[in-house]
Amino acid sequence: MIGGRKFFVPTMLAFGFAFLYVPILSMMFYSFNYSKLVTVWDHANSPTLKWYGLLFHNGRIMGAAWLSIKIATMNACISVVLGTLAGLVLARFGRFRGRTILAAMTTAPLVMPEVITGLAMLLLFVSMEQLIGWPAGRGVTTITIAHVTFSMAYVTVIIQSRLANFDDSLEEAAMDLGARPAKVFWRITLPLIMPAIVSGWLLAFTLSWDDVVISQFVAGPSSTTLPMVIFSKVRLGVSPDVNALATIMVLIVATGVVLSAIVMQRQEKRRAREMQLAASD
Amino acid sequence: MSGSNGRRWRSASKGSGKRAPGSLLTRPWEPLWQLFHRLRPARWSAYVRDHWIGKPLVTAVPMAWLVLFFMVPFIIVFGISFSQSVLAIPPYEELWGWTDDKVLQLRLHLANYNYLFTDTLYVSSYLYSVKVAAVSTFFCLLLGYPMAYGIARASTTRRNIYLMLIILPFWTSFLLRVYAWIGLLKSNGVINNILVWLGVIHEPITMMQTDFAVYIGIVYSYLPFMILPLYSNLEKHDRTLLEAAADLGSRPWKAFMRITLPLSMPGIVAGSLLVFIPAVGEYVIPSLLGRTDQLMIGRVLSDEFFENRDWPVASAVAIAMLILLVVPIMIFQRYQNRELAHK
To answer: What fold characterizes domain A71-166+198-237?
Structure first.
């Protein structure tokens, strides 16, 4: 039986990782195929960078990508501020009236089906426009607001769990020494949760960059984001320039994740060492 | 009270006494600061904690945002689900209206909900969505549990690499990862090409636009959501329990069934709900990989909205979906709050 487990678990791990990565690698591989059929390898002309060249000359894709970058950046910045506040409130402010509602409103968006969120956001914007005239029409503003609403829930969870990892003794100590709450936040809490803020920002950026369903509901006629362009293309079947685009995106993300993992691990190590030094002092 | 002040004062003087010569030169405000410390309220921290204006302010900002952009929209959806579809902009009738003799009137149409039950399209889409989500969640658990177990039992270095490999796809576009499966599954796709080349099959198998493709798509996209809560649960287990069981003559399999599995129940519940709830309303995966003769409820909602422009029925579909999901969502919230409270 021990032999069985020793065999079973590694097999499942290997199978699982193959399952996760074979599709991505195959998608990247076929981006160098000359054939328009994508998965039928053209031996005569491949490998080629043809689709990459075409991609950069596709004004629609480039325009949509730029719009997506703008929305994702704005979304990430606003989400990080709101999510950090919400995480701080939930982790540090103890019990207060409305805590249950706040906690519910920050966990529900994590699992809420996107079609429901999208529909609800659109109906809100339509009703608001009727009532107060804002937002006038739909576009970048409405997409950003909708994205912030679900992204900030993720940021909140990240911040909250980071704060739960530290007890509040450092903050208490600073308070006892007379630091004002705002100062405690800037000098003690913020540096402690900085890694969580950075990963929250990146996650919020990715969530927005990736979202198609909610954007479709709240986008206006002149605001087509990159995922919306990709979705309308791939609904009709495979398309070689999408493979090229995917390859570029995967490479950027992979580099970023690996680099940030290395940097964060180093920082954590340094912090642990400093803590140890401080304790032995 | 004065006692606590005195304690604080002593500790402050001890601290400055250590490096007294330099501190007065480099920090000339030090004496003033210490005077201020003596004069301040005895329980300064408690005073600030009780009277600080920032606290309600800090709470109000995210609260206001979520109430306005998360809670109010659902109330509006709920309201419009009782409205009637009309040819106008926006295409629904106001619930509140004034009659000719200036009496406020509330018009609630239950017809939309009645419609959901009488037209078999909706009921069958609901049942189909629940079935697809349940089956996908089961396979996700079947694959995710051994993986999470393997990661939790691995050495620290390996564990970090494994975790990064699990999280990495999560950072890449969900849409593109689903798209990748079209290239694998279609009739002249990678899998069929390889099988034909190996001589296993002579004719390509139809895998696209089947239930199978949707299961694959959901398991593939949501696997990290299953593995991560399971891992964070399994990692916390006390391994001496298993050793004790082994010492008492329990076989590994039995020890697993009697100890590890029951202990990991919270992780199983959290992971399964994180997969099941969004999967019920999944839109992108069935649109790209799924059947065209049997739609999932997310697709029905979106068609009702975009194709038929019937906003009230779309709202009723959303509310009906929410009613179906409210219990799982509440269980998930209870788990999530407990998890975040006791770290």
So the answer is: MetI-like fold (1.10.3720)
